[in-house]
Amino acid sequence: MATLTTRVLDQYNGIAVEGMVVSLEGHGDEEPIMTLHTNVCGELEDVLLQDGCGGHYRLVYHVRDYFLGRGVDCPLLDRIPVELTLSRGASEVIVLLISPWGYSVHRDNRGCHDGRVPGRC
């Protein structure tokens, strides 16, 4: 079964992103499967996909709302969609590094179960 979560870091301010809305959508779905907010560590309190099948998914990060809330006048980015394919049995952590004007996304090589206590950075 596939497991998916995410972590978001703000490169502009040098902090973990707290309070960003992150949605998970299935391929071709109109409505999100799940919508969560990042915590003080930039992580989700729950996994987006637990014991799911492999397949095509889209993570949607609500970046503009986050930066407007931090006082950035005119962030370039609004929502960042990250489309991915999970293989059956995959356990993935997708890391998003953001600024008001750009972003980078990568797969965390530690996986979902790195032994850290959720909520403790």
Radius of gyration using CA atoms only: 14 Å
- N-to-C CA distance: 27 Å
What gross morphology would you assign?
A: globular
Please give the domain count.
1
What is the count of helical runs? Answer: 1
Structural class: mainly beta
Mean pLDDT: 88
> What is the CATH superfamily label?
Transthyretin/hydroxyisourate hydrolase domain
- CATH-defined fold name: Immunoglobulin-like
Number of strands: 9
Tell me about the biggest sheet?
A: 5 strands, mixed
CATH class: Mainly Beta
CATH architecture: Sandwich
Residue share in β-strands: over 45%
| Helix and strand pattern | EEEEEEHEEE
Low-confidence stretches: none
**Percentage of residues assigned to helices:** under 10%
Care to describe what's here?
There is one protein chain. By secondary structure, this protein is mainly beta. The chain has a single domain (2-107), classed as Transthyretin/hydroxyisourate hydrolase domain (Immunoglobulin-like, Sandwich). It is built from one helix and nine strands. The strands form two sheets. Strands 1, 2, 5, 8 and 9 form a five-stranded mixed beta sheet that branches. The protein has a four-stranded antiparallel beta sheet with strand order 4-3-6-7.
